[in-house]
Amino acid sequence: MNLDTILQKAINAQPLTYNEIMFLLTLNKEADYTRVFAAAREVRAKHFQDKVFLYGFIYFSTYCKNNCSFCYYRMTNSESPRYRKSIGETVRIAGELAESGVHLIDLTMGEDPLFHNPDGYNELTRLVREVKENSDLPVMVSPGLVPAGSLYELKQAGADWYALYQETHNQNLYKKLRLQQEYEHRMSAKLLAKRLGFFIEEGILLGVGEDFTDIATSILTMQNLGVHQARVMSLVPQRGTPLAGQSPPPQLKELLSIAVMRLALGNVLIPASLDIEGITGLKKRLEAGANVVTSIIPPRTGLAGVSQSSLDIEAGFRTASGVTRVLTELGLKRASLQEYQDWLLAQKPEPHQKGGVVNESRHYWRTAAGN
Question: pLDDT tens across 275-320, in order?
């Protein structure tokens, strides 16, 4: 393996092999890391120039019926803060985020039993419709696993993105992370969403027992899925969870994973999340090739983050203006809303007919979501 050859392949938009991805992930010299990060920025610039997109984040319900071993909001954790925002509150916050200059509203919740039932899915659809109409922005939904019919209704209500993370594509490790949740059900839901015309986001979690082969497999799986946004985040050990005593992974592991994702996946959106190290960790993630800043949360709204429930929020650092200052320091700039919409238009997936998609997905519809 030759580093120069692999990096030039990526810059020339030639697909990387599993062995080449493994080679990049297992580099161990600082000079090599520097070259990988520089190449990742070059690939990003070819597709996005100096433009970065910003996502407003509304975690509108922290209740969940699941018991994922890594999650602060797992059902049995009595230490995590619980709240549900009303539709009116959520719409108001989305409007504030839109005025601040974000490009998308990310509506996230745990698999809240109040919403995960036939009447609740209708309320979720109503929420999406009202946020879309009042913010006039693209909307991402991160509601967990929902029935096929509800996915269709969410799309009709104006949802543009469906985010549903496996966290790993090693199925044995998956069983230790997402307890009593079928791997294939979540994968099928993503495929169905894409066929319905959603943009899809997939994500992996580091520091949970994975090795480099797992990361390489995940990157290639995302490539085969044709994801539009690929996320990698590091574990933040949470009180009241089975992984509370786990040591977080080295920062370099996440940065190198971001860079290799950029080299292997090219023209996809890759987030630099504020939910791990707050504003202080943003610069390095952008320098590794990320081009989206996620988890922008306005202060004084009572909203929480996922991995870091309060970091930098009330201080006002997780805002569009706070992020823009960091972009300027790096010679980057906040894209215009039109530029983000142009990217979406260029990448827009073609939806299939509802009847055919749902009929072909009846196994998922019945068994995965109980509908």
Answer: 999 999 999 999 999 999 999 999 999 999 999 888 889 988 899 9
Provide the b/e sequence for 169-187 (b: ≥16 CB within 10 Å). bbeebbebbbeebbbeebb
The burial of 150, by beta-carbon neighbours within 10 Å (0-12 exposed, 13-18 middle, 19 or more buried), is given as buried
- pLDDT digits 0-9 by tens, 166-178: 999 999 999 999 9
Residue 64 CA to residue 89 CA, distance in Å, equals 20
- Distance between CA atoms of 43 and 40, rounded to whole angstroms? 5
CB atoms within 10 A of CB 71: 23
Phi and psi torsions of 133, nearest 5°: -70, -35
What is d(CA 230, CA 224) in angstroms, rounded to the nearest whole number? 12
Distance CA 274, CA 278 (A): 4
Cα pseudo-dihedral 258, 173, 189, 244, rounded to 10: -80
pTM of the full structure: 0.94
Dig out the tokens for 29 from the structure: 């010299």
